[in-house]
Each structure stands twice: as structure tokens, then as C-alpha cells.
Specification:
Bound molecules: phosphoenolpyruvate
Mean pLDDT: 96
CATH class: Alpha Beta
Number of helices: 11
CATH architecture: Alpha-Beta Barrel
Shape: globular
CATH topology: TIM Barrel
Strand content: 5-15%
Radius of gyration: 17 Å
């Protein structure tokens, strides 16, 4: 059984005050018997405070990015995976499409971040997904395969047993356009079958999240698809009631 995971990517939003009220609302609003695992990913500067605020609550903490270099050293402005682990982050998002598109992160850099995260004991949430042009030219599976292959080549399939994948069609992120449940299922099924070519057991246990304009009104139908194991939520995760409704839709 794959336990659903609902992750909030708060991106470059918020303030200390907003963080406090968001986390407080989530801690109060989540029932103890929620079946989905919940993860929040605030901006770096708020992670330490969020870690203390979450205390022993069941909500997990993650970062939105990590340095590809292991260990420490002269990498001005970077944050290492070990530093994230030190402040009790459990997850880190790697390869978000905004990092790939705006900061020109290559498939190879993303793969190195995946490896660096795992070396420090973090669980990478690896994002893959196609742009609108790529979808319209029929290249969706080729793009997703290329992004996955870069990580498979660098880390090996066994590493996927300690990771989460997120299918995030770029055209659906922050646009209000959501993939239909069938479109999501098709790519999730493709991702799982691609991992299964290398290891059926790991593929069967791998959680694959959907991300792209998930809202309380469309979450349940997307999460109901066979290969969708929860969501990576941007905009709607900044509103306590919406995020809680999405968590409930996941189980
Ligand atoms: C995201 O940032 O990963 C995301 C899916 O954003 P949104 O839910 O706002 O589309």
C-alpha cells in the first residue's frame, strides 16, 4: 500500500507572521487519524522556525531546493543537504520546473541534487513534466523519460525506493489549467512502468504525486486515479482551508 502524500510548496511567499498562522492552522486542522502524510516546504529562511513550530506534530518539513555539492565548502549562497537534515527537514524538492526553467538547472544537476539529498538522509521529491509545446508536439513521454533517465543513470534504480516523484506538467503550474484525471493517469502510469522496467517492486511502492493547479474542487478526482498517490500543491497550499480540504481528498 502506498500512503498518500500531500505536499505544500510555498515557494517565495509569506512572512514569519504568515508562516506562524499557516502552520498553526494546519496543526489545529489536521485530525490525528488523517490517512495522508502531510509535508510543507517553506522558503529556506523560515525552515528553522517552522521546524520548531511543528515540534512533534505529524506534519513533515521539506525544503524547495538544495545544493548539488555534498559536504561543505566555498559555495557562497548555497544550502547543503546536511544543513537541511540538521534542522530536521525530511524531504527536499529537486527539479521543480521553475528551477529548471528560470535557473537553467539541467537534468544532470537535478540528478546530482537527488544524490546529494539522499546522501544526507533526505527524501528527494523529484519533479518531472513537459511544457505545453512539448505536449502539443507529442513529446510528453520522451521528455519525462529523459528527466527520469538522468536520475536513474546517476543514482540507480535502488535509490528510487527512498524517493518520491511528482509529475508536474509545466503548463498546469500556477495557470489554473489542470491536467484531466485521464491525462494525469496516463503519465503517472508511464512513469511507474518505466521504473518497473528496472525494478517491479520499487515501482509498485513508489509514490507519484500530481502537481499543477490542484484545488479543493478537483483534488478528489485526480487522487482517485490508480497511479496518483497524492499531490504537490502550490497556490492552494497557502490557504489553510483549501490545503486541509485537499489533504482530506487524498484520504
Ligand atoms: C507547484 O508549485 O509545484 C504547483 C503545482 O503550483 P500550483 O499548485 O499553484 O499550480
Amino acid at each position: 500500500m502506498r500512503k498518500p502524500l500531500v505536499a505544500g510548496n510555498w515557494k517565495m511567499h509569506g512572512s514569519r507572521q504568515q508562516l506562524d498562522s499557516l502552520l498553526g492552522g494546519l496543526i489545529d486542522g489536521l485530525s490525528d487519524n488523517a490517512t495522508a502524510e502531510v509535508l510543507v516546504c517553506p522558503a529556506f529562511v523560515y525552515l528553522h522556525e517552522a521546524s520548531a513550530r511543528l515540534g512533534d506534530s505529524a506534519i513533515e518539513l521539506g525544503a524547495q531546493n538544495v545544493c548539488a555539492q555534498a559536504g561543505e565548502g566555498a559555495f557562497t549562497g548555497e544550502i547543503s543537504a546536511a544543513m537541511l537534515a540538521d534542522i530536521k527537514c525530511r524531504y527536499v524538492i529537486v527539479g521543480h520546473s521553475e528551477r529548471r526553467a528560470i535557473y537553467a538547472e539541467s537534468d544532470e544537476q537535478v540528478a546530482k541534487k537527488f544524490v546529494a539529498a539522499q546522501a544526507a538522509g533526505l527524501i528527494p521529491v523529484l519533479c518531472v513534466g513537459e511544457t505545453l509545446d512539448e505536449r502539443e508536439s507529442g513529446a510528453t513521454e520522451a521528455v519525462v523519460a529523459r528527466q527520469l533517465d538522468a536520475v536513474l543513470d546517476e543514482a540507480g534504480v535502488a535509490a528510487f525506493s527512498q524517493s518520491v516523484l511528482a509529475y508536474e506538467p509545466v503548463w498546469a503550474i500556477g495557470t489554473g489549467k489542470t491536467a484531466s484525471p485521464d491525462q494525469a493517469q496516463q503519465v503517472h502510469g508511464f512513469i511507474r512502468s518505466k521504473i518497473a522496467e528496472k525494478d517491479v517492486k520499487i515501482a509498485g511502492l513508489l509514490r507519484i504525486l500530481y502537481g499543477g493547479s490542484v484545488k479543493p474542487g478537483n483534488a478528489a478526482e485526480i487522487f482517485a486515479m490508480a497511479d496518483v498517490d497524492g499531490g504537490l500543491i502550490g497556490g492552494a497550499s497557502l490557504k489553510v482551508d483549501d490545503f486541509l480540504a485537499i489533504v482530506r481528498a487524498a484520504g
